[in-house]
Amino acid sequence: MNTHQEKLWSKEFILITLCNLLLFLNLQMLLPSFPVYTKDAFQASDFTVSLVTSLFALSAIATRFFAAGILRKGKVSIILYTGAAIALLATAGYYWCGSIALLLVMRVLFGVGFGLASTTLPTMAAHVIPPRRMGEGIGYFGLSTSLAMSIGPIIGLSLLGSFGFGTLTAAGSLVLILIFPLAFANRSVDLSPAGSPAASSSSKKNTGAVLKKIALPGLLNLLLSVTYGGLLSFLALYGKQAHLSHIGSFFLFNALAIFLIRPFSGRIFDSKGHFGIMVAGAVFTMGGLVTLSLADSTLYIILAAMLYGLGYGMIQPSIQAWMIKEVPVEQRGLANSMFFNSLDLGVAAGSMLLGAIAMHANYSGMYRISALFMGLFLVLYLVVSLWQRKRRSSDAEQKTA
């Protein structure tokens, strides 16, 4: 492999990563602010608040199945521009919602746009990342999401508190508008390596086998995302209930920990595989959730955020790289679709399930229950991994016999 092929920080990779930053910045500015706005503006219940998150996620999930099929045909620009335009229309439309029903409709519309754009960008990134540096490249690409996670909630909650929901939606709209010139400057990326109709037909026939290969990492990503859904939907409300004045700092220190760990975890994945990363990451994530449930000061919040961020930053990009490496090039759109679908399905399920639990218990107890999902994550991963190793060892013995 030559030097050009090994280059990671190409113009295309940088532009794609910037587009991803802007897309997720819009999401993170508005998502943690919606529970507070919905409670104050519409006197909504915890379950209704959870619908603001879950309906967006479910519409994004449904949309990605459609997007994955088009990506196999190489229709990159069409999907990206369409997704960004729909998300922009929905973001601007939030301001005009006079009822909770209309707000939920806009959330569904945003989910459609976000589903299209969020499937396209990582597929483009995977196409320009050198195969031997996939874990490292996806880790750096994911830092754009981490940066959005760190500054988005702070910007969003600050704008909402100081200037109101109208200013927040205007700022979110401006962020999405900036995607269009960056995407226009990156038209050189071509995602049609399979090319021929025969290759396309073969790709469709192999879809079932591909889905089987990525089923385990997809399920693990879902379990991880259940816990994140509880943070997005109820962390601000938990801060109010527990009288934690600096609860928003969780997002900042969570993202800081992700920034610190992702470059290292990506290199470990490329050289050693995913085993050590998954186990250690699950332990860190559980520790973060338990610590958060016990928080009675800003110091506890920071510690919880760092633990959770280390675990999340180790696990999530490794799962995405794992899924991409398991599939042929022409099926990367499908792998990214399943990665984000499992993420959004987990966020939606976590928001609704943990929201129902919060109605019968306090938020502190809800976060302790949330930690159990990472316990299930760890058990499932270890059981399946050990079974797969045993099966491979058995097959090797039979071949040498």
From TrEMBL:
Record's keyword annotation contains Membrane: yes
Extract the CDD domains matched here: MFS_YfcJ_like
Name under which the protein is recorded:
MFS transporter
According to its record, how does it sit in the membrane? Multi-pass membrane protein
Q: Which Pfam families match?
A: MFS_1
Q: Which InterPro entries match?
A: MFS (IPR011701), MFS_dom (IPR020846), MFS_Exporter (IPR052714), MFS_trans_sf (IPR036259)
- Its source organism is Fictibacillus fluitans
Query: TM segments?
Result: 12-31, 51-71, 78-96, 102-126, 138-157, 163-184, 214-238, 244-261, 273-292, 298-315, 338-359, 365-384
Domain annotation Major facilitator superfamily (MFS) profile: ranges = 12-393
Would I find Membrane among this entry's keywords? yes
Where can this protein be found?
Cell membrane
Highest taxon, organism lineage: Bacteria
The record's keywords, sorted A to Z, are: Membrane, Transmembrane, Transmembrane helix, Transport
